[in-house]
Design brief:
Elements (H helix, E strand, L loop, with lengths): L3 H23 L5 H5 L2 H21 L2 H24 L5 H14 L2 H4 L7 H18 L16 H14 L7 H21 L2 H21 L4 H25 L9 H15 L1
Helix pairs in contact: 1-4, 3-4, 8-10, 9-10, 11-12
Length: about 270
C-alpha cells in the first residue's frame, strides 16, 4: 500500500500533467476547438458533467464515479487555465482561496469554537458566510447568493426559504394549500380563454406554489420531481416489457390496455 507522501506526490504529478495537457490543447498549434472555447462555453459543459457525476453517485458505481469526476475536474481545470491566460487568477489562487475559506468556516476544527451538534455546525457556517458577504460589501439582496443556473425547482425552494426567514410566508401549510387551489383555478381560466402566454404564466405560478408547499411539508421539491420521473420510467419499462412478451409495442396497444398495464405496474411497485 502506497504511503500518504507517495500518494500526494503521485497526485501532484498527475495534476501537473493534466494542466500541461490543457495548455498544449490551448497552444497556438494545439486544438482549434479547445483554443476557441471561452469560460462561458465551458460553463455549459460544467453543468452537464456535474449532473453526470450525480447520476454516477446514485448508481454507486465506483468506476463510473471515477470517470465522471475526471470529466468534471477537466472542465474546472480548463476554466482555471483560461483565466490564467487572461492574467486574472491561476489554479494556485483557486486552491489557496478555497483552503482559506474552509479553514475560516470550520473554526470548531481549526480554531477554538466548541460545537455540540451538526445543527450548530450549520448555524456557524451560515453566520460566517453572512459576515463574509457583509465584509465584501456585496449586494444585500437576500437572494443574491442563490445561483441563477440552479434547476428551477431547486432555485425556487431556496428563494422561498430565504423569503420565509425574512417573515414573508404563510403561517402554515394550509396557506400554501389555499394558494395552490387559487392558482389551479387561475390556470383553468387561462386555459379556457385560450391565452397561451397566460397559461404559461399561471403554470409557473402553480409550480412556484407547489414548491412552497413542499417546503412546509419538509419535502425537497427537486428530489420529489426527480423521483416521480424515475417512477414513471420504471412503470413505462414494465409496460414495454409486458407488451413485448405479447409480441406487441406500446404503439400497437389501445389506451385502455396501456392504462390496465399501468395500474398493474403501480400495484407491483407498492
Amino acid at each position: 500500500m502506497a504511503s500518504p507522501l507517495g500518494i500526494m506526490n503521485q497526485t501532484q504529478t498527475q495534476l501537473l500533467e493534466l494542466m500541461a495537457l490543457i495548455q498544449r490543447l490551448r497552444a497556438p498549434d494545439g486544438c482549434p476547438w479547445d483554443r476557441k472555447q471561452t469560460r462561458r462555453d465551458i460553463g455549459k459543459y460544467l453543468l452537464d458533467e456535474s449532473y453526470e457525476v450525480l447520476d454516477a453517485l446514485t448508481e454507486n458505481d465506483p468506476e463510473h464515479i471515477q470517470e465522471e469526476l475526471g470529466d468534471l475536474l477537466f472542465q474546472i481545470l480548463f476554466i482555471a487555465e483560461i483565466s490564467a491566460e487572461a492574467g486574472e487568477f491561476s489554479l494556485s489562487d483557486v486552491m489557496k482561496g478555497i483552503r482559506e475559506k474552509m479553514i475560516r468556516r470550520h473554526p470548531h476544527v481549526f480554531g477554538d469554537v466548541k460545537v455540540e451538534s451538526v445543527q450548530e455546525v450549520r448555524d456557524n457556517w451560515q453566520e460566517i458566510k453572512k459576515r463574509e458577504r457583509n465584509g465584501a460589501q456585496r449586494n444585500q439582496d437576500p437572494f443574491s447568493h442563490i445561483p441563477r443556473s440552479l434547476p428551477a425547482l431547486q432555485r425556487a425552494q431556496k428563494i422561498t426559504a430565504a423569503a420565509s426567514r425574512r417573515g414573508f410566508d404563510w403561517p402554515d401549510a394550509n396557506g400554501a394549500l389555499d394558494k395552490l387551489k387559487e392558482e389551479l383555478k387561475e390556470l383553468e381560466e387561462a386555459r379556457i380563454e385560450g391565452d397561451a402566454v397566460k397559461v404559461q404564466e399561471e403554470m409557473g405560478d402553480l409550480f412556484f406554489t407547489l414548491v412552497n408547499l413542499s417546503r412546509f411539508l419538509n419535502v425537497d421539491a427537486e428530489k420529489a420531481a426527480a423521483g416521480a420521473v424515475d417512477k414513471f420510467l420504471r412503470r413505462w419499462s414494465f409496460i414495454t416489457q409486458t407488451l413485448a412478451a405479447r409480441g406487441r409495442s406500446p404503439e400497437e396497444a389501445t389506451p385502455a390496455e396501456l392504462d390496465l398495464i399501468w395500474n398493474e405496474a403501480k400495484e407491483k411497485g407498492r
